[in-house]
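Inputs:
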Amino acid sequence: MSKFHVTTQVNGDEVEFLCDPRETLLDCLRDKLNLTGAKEGCGTGDCGACSVTVDGRLVCSCLMLGVEAEGKQIETVEGIADGDVLHPLQKKMIEYAALQCGICTPGILVAAKSLLEKNPNPTEEETRYWLAGNLCRCTGYDKIIRAVMDTAADLREAS
Amino acid sequence: MALDDRKSGFTFVGTRPDRPDGLDKVTGRAKFGADMSAPGMLHGAILRSPHAHARIVRIDTSKAEAHKYVKAVVTRADFAEVPFKPGLEGEFWNVLENVMAGEKALYDGHAVAAIAATSALAARDAVKLIEVEYEVLPHVTDVDKAMAPDAPVIREGAADYSVPEGVHPNVVRYHESGHGDVEAGFAEADLVIEDSFVTEATHQGYIEPHACLGQLGADGKGELWCTTQGHWIAQKTCAALLGIETSQLRVTASEIGGGFGGKTTVFIEPVALALSRKANRPVKIVMSRSEVFRATGPTASASMDVKIGMKKDGTITAAEGIFRLQGGAFPGAPGDMTAMCAFAPYNLTNVRQVGYDVMANRPKQAAYRAPGAPMGAFAVESVIDELCKKLDLDPIDVRLKNAAHEGTKASYGPTYEQIGLVESLEAAKAHQHYSAPLKPGQGRGISCGFWFNHGGETSVSLALSEDGSAQVMVGTPDIGGSRASMALMAAEVLGIPYENIRVTIADTATLGYNDVSHGSRVTYASGLATIKAAKHAVEKLCERAAAKWGIPVDAVKWENGCAVPSGPNAGDFDPLPLAEITANMGSTGGPISGHFEATPEGAGVSFGIHIVDAEVDPETGKTSVSRYTVIQDAGKAIHPAYVEGQYQGGAAQGIGWALNEEYIYGDDGRLQNSIFLDYRIPVASDLPMIDTVIVEVPNPGHPYGVRGVGETGIVPPLAAIANAVSHAAGVRMRQLPMSPPRILAALKQDG
Amino acid sequence: MTGGQQVVEVDATTTGEILRELVRRYPQLQAPIDAGVSIAINGRIIASGLSEPVPEGAEVYLMQRLRGG
């Protein structure tokens, strides 16, 4: 089967790749662009470990085809820090011990950043429902929710 | 192991620094199982049986082999013939049989053949070209049905010495233990309750599917990268299954995306190596989520009968339990563990417990956090709750009245050393959660839980650098922040800052043997080994200082990171910091390292108590957990934030097991819910905050008093939630999960 | 397996010696010991070690080999 040439923007950089029309955006990020931060936990859009944003919208990259990325702006976990300066969410996740194995962490960070961009003052319930698409099997979510809400508070204070 | 170096005042231990691998894990650069690739790499795919039980008549691989992108096809014939010893002794044979089916497919999802192709897509397409002819056989997936006289026999001769005569051949191991006279004890009781309970199999549900990258040459030398809880067991098993020398296979553990017991064995790793040997290229295999559910190691399902007698004052006079555990088509279901743990929290005069290990046409069970213990606790703690209710007694008071303590003869035999059950129960009783008023419609439940904990074979190496920093090499994969704990313990001994210590998970070629990261053993055993290795290095540091000062080595002691003279005749010298000794160690005797290799035996059992408030929607049958508190003895919390994390994670998994999660098999013996949409683990909006109390009753078997904390936290939730739900709904729930349809049915039956 | 006896006394200074002595006196115990046992000495559980010292007069208890997750 012939492959498609795709030009897209990932974390601000223009990139190109050739992909089979059956390959997902997640396959392309991981296997063609070596951006292995997004993880495949389920392949069915249930776990959120592959979360990225496409033109600012939070999506499971396992549910989107690589060819659909043409001309889009994609943000992944690799683009969250500003150079060597971590995003406040990244700092808080470490500070709160909000990760154990760390496999869900990239997806949680992408989803939480997306939440705070839309809602700088989420309630606990809003935070829990927003992150309900991101499975974590280690933490019971307690420290993750606290880290996200505390980051939101810090960011509000700073702005 | 004699410990003459107990410690109670700490500088680093008990603090909460950032974990050393934090940056890697929040930036996406940490390399997990599926994140590795190699030049010339092929992709593997595995063909799996669609039948629960079938004879494999013929496998035709010719069409797949002819596919232009296919480089190798393997079947059972491509593995070493491990000497066949039926039953429990041939564990390598059991693993081989599970990794690649021989004469029969034993469960839906059992691997039958595998291919390696130039891309993952090509592998997925080409694996469908393998033709298998099956003769479908009768199957059984339910534990009680598998023990019935007319059940199909899964494998003749699999039972071991322990199984009594006349029992169905699917029962492969039998356990019985206890003490006293239970019949006499029941006669003394004012109330005896006997009841039956059922739990379904659940999956560990780690978010990272199994993944590996293997390379094996015709010279019998190989490399394997994989996500595992123990790379030495992977090395040993793969070498045996492929007929190569263990030391010729170097295994590197990737970062691991959760294990909980499910990554303590191998599934795809020997297959990747067999494909690589045939294709002469590296082969990567990554499981899909559906493969993880169908063909890795879920927990056992259980059917249990429990009978307990109690006096009006709450004294338990006798307790008896029969625990039947189904562990898939291989020996190994932990019926013995269930039996031994079930009554372990209590000081009993008369107790008897029986455990069965039963085979059925399901995947080979693997450990899942305190394997076997949660099911037994569900049955026992439910009956105790019912007794408390009928006798109008406070559930914590009753448990305190019967609680095991130092000197109690445990239900499983030995006499307890120092344990923290009474302290934990008292902390639970004093916790404001326990006295907080309940809202209408809410119910409150509590439960105790027990787990043995484990030591295991352990090697640790510690090397000092010239600049005074230290590198620690451990062999237990870091699943939940253990690098931080190791660095804290090394810092405590060496007296140098936590940040100056780098902890690496060594591969199998660079460190001696290490048992798996399981049995809650890492902070205990690798921690003990780290402390000992650091002390070994400190001895050498003191020798160098003694030589420099020209005094005997026993006149030098180590204090706050410095050698200092000690004793009346030592002389007067300024403290000599570690970095000053290491700066010229090359010319004062050579590199300074510390080592420790042993099997620490002193893990120290642990107990926990959970308090749960739940409410049940009578319209839909849905349960909401509104408040949750975990109280557990940690011995000594090295990094308290990660101890809390273990408590919270265990509780969350228990909530899933109690309310939602189950393996659902159709009449055809096929698993019906093999994706996360249908096998629903708790999501953030399902759970409340999970409060924790760390009780610290030191373990006499560890220099800092550590007890393992990873597993005990999943033992109490099933019963605690069942008790809360039963109070909220007004009906006793005897079957897990307490899914909405089951609760509605129970409410209806109750009228 | 020990002729009905639940409690037996043996002379031994390590866990391994205990097992060897038990098998010598009660050959029927070979199968369960081969299948894997853990030994508790005065309450301290020895999962698998055969060289652990056993103090004189110690209470020793045999259990099926413990496993973990």
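The two ends of chain B are 59 Å apart (CA to CA). Flag for discussion at group meeting.
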